[in-house]
Amino acid sequence: MPSVDSFWRRHFALSSPLTIILSGGVIAVVVGLVGATIWTGSESAEVRRAGSSPSSNALPTETVPEIETTTTKPDLSMESIDTKISPFAWALSTLDQSGRPSQASAFVVGVSGRQTFLITSLAAVEAATRNPAPEITAQNGTFNGPAILWTWDEEHDLALLAVNRPRAESLEWAANNNAAKAGDRIFAVSSDPDNRVTPGVLTRTTSSVLEHNIFIDDARRGGPIVNIKGEVIAMSSAAFTGGGDPTDSTFFSVPIRELCATLIHCAGTNPPQAGTPDAPSTTEG
Predict the structure, then answer these.
(1) Is 42 helix (H, G, I), strand (E, B) or coil?
(2) Comparing 259 with 189, which gets the higher pLDDT?
């Protein structure tokens, strides 16, 4: 039986310098390939780990809020209401049935042909329902001219006026699906330069009357009541009660959609276009 020493000599003994050089080269190549394979595998693993992990300054996906798209209008401050909404209030001046000065506010509800139609409180212009009728003067911006009482709704204290102005901007009405409710903040807008916007709160609402805590004086009556989005929800009135009992802190206004019942056409526009009867009507005094 051959010894272990003779086995190693027979299989691995280097017989010449050339054999030693070649053997060394082979070993070097083998070692190099093995090392490169190990290094490449290690680097690839590091790259995969870096690619699958969030960086130190990135938020985890689950904590990033989704972008919310909305068409909801922003709430307006009283200052914004004063700046953006009060210029839409028109000033009216006329005489009452006793010949005394009568004032009110009004706002545009439509344009037809070369006429602009305004809504106001009938109580303020009631003397114009009889002949001879006192002149009604309407003023807004650069316009200062006569207004004609076109038609009216006595039950709701509504009067529709026409002025010879072919173009006039109007306020947006609140949509039906954004119904006013008790507790909502509101603003009464008037043409009084010293008191153009008065804040308040709705205390009760029905389909036919809005109850609130804003005192309605002569200058405010006929003006728009807007919600916190600046949309018209009612007309201010000092005469309309809707069957309620007025007190020192309870006042009533006409929901803007009541205009659609008798005075203006409400299909498809916001605000609706004013109706155009054949001619204004008055009663002989």
Answers:
(1) helix
(2) 189
Residue 107, C-beta contacts closer than 8 angstroms, at least 6 positions apart:
88, 89, 90, 118, 119, 170, 171, 189, 222, 223, 224, 232, 235
Query: Kindly report the CA angle at 199 between 198 and 200, in degrees rounded to 5?
Result: 125
Closest CA to 159 of 126, 110, 199: 126
pLDDT tens column, 214-250: 999 999 999 999 999 999 999 999 999 988 888 888 9
Site of tokens 């009452």: 96
CB of 149 closer than 8 Å to CB of 282: yes
Burial 8-40 (b: 16+ CB within 10 A, else e): eeeeeeeeeeeeeeeeeeeeeeeeeeeeeeeee
Give dist(CA 190, CA 257) in Å, integer.
Answer: 20
State how far the Cα of 274 lies from the Cα of 115, in Å rounded to an integer.
10
Tens-digit pLDDT profile for residues 144-178? 999 999 999 999 999 999 999 998 999 999 987 56
Percent of the chain with pLDDT over 70: 68
Pairing of strands 130-131, 283-284: parallel
Tell me which residue of 72, 122, 62, 71 sits closest to 97, measured CA to CA: 122
CA gap 285, 282 in Å, rounded: 9
| pTM of full prediction above 0.85 | no
List, in order, residues 6 or more apart from 100 with CB less than 8 Å away: none
Contact 107, 170 (CB under 8 A): yes
